[in-house]
Write a structure and sequence with these properties.
mainly alpha, 13 helices, 0% strand
Amino acid sequence: MSEHTQRARRVPLLMLAMASLLAGLWAGLRRLGWDLPELRPTLLMAHGPLMVCGFLGTLISLERAIALGRSWGLLGPLAAGTGGVLAIAGVGGVVPACLALAASAALLAMYVDFVGKQRAASMYVMLVGAALWLVGNMLWFLGRPMNEVTYWWIGFVTLTIMGERYGFSRMVGPTKGSKWMFALSIAFILLGLLLSAVFLTAGVLILGIGLIAGDRWISWYDISRRTLKHSGLPRYVALSIQSGSMWLGVGGLLMLIFKDIPAGPHYDAILHAVFVGFAISMIFGHAPLIFPSVLKLPLKYQPYFYVPLVLLHASLVQRVASDLFGWTYLRQWGGFLSTAAILLFFVLNIVSVVSSRKNASSPVESH
């Protein structure tokens, strides 16, 4: 299959993910009190599902489908992205949840295929992560409270990223301490989620310990700790990974303090520490490596990639601090600046792609 054909199949799916991201960010700003036009009355309540299932779910499923190399794998990102677009269009009820459920089932099937070919611990962890997404989407489909659903989505995102990072650790050979710390963090996360189905408070406390342990594993043992000493792209990726890991630990610590709080500023701080500080920072770091394989377009690292990364973390510090101390005005601006950082990141990536293509197509001057 030619690169042009592959791109023609993948770009529309990536656009579905971006549509969910843009609508989710818009809804997030409205939830913070920014006076923006109301696109749909139901959009405010769709903020979380759009960001997790419509954006992250589509993006993760698309990347996995490309790695799998089978056409049926594209059904996963198609379902997740379509569910996001329907939510944007105001389709409520069980339809978006049903499509998210189908997407997570497709992702789980992809990992089963992967495990059949590569029986690596990292693949098993990501397979379990997909199963957590499936459970969370089932709870959403059944109409369970969104805070209960969200903990399973946190497990999905965390195990997916940690599994991928553990796969990279094979390059340097994980130590016995690394293996034990990794196993303990995964065990606490799974135990916490399972316990939350019966005793929510106890489950959230154990989940928080698991997130803190996951942060410690990435900070101490991930390969990014070594590549911090390098320059250029390796250092940028390493700083994105290490700074994102810090927010996973912050989210876990906030869970220990506030437990299973169902809504409000403290709940907001927990969710954005994990989904923005941890997950989005990881996307920032992996984008220069993953986007070229997804789009089949060159993307060259540029020093200005640090601008949205620094802005993301600085604005998130402002938002979480505002959540904790009740600074409404600063909380609004923290959310606005985080949104600006995410949008700036994608704009700069587009600029880099365009610049790389121009350089590649320019004739070489002779002297």
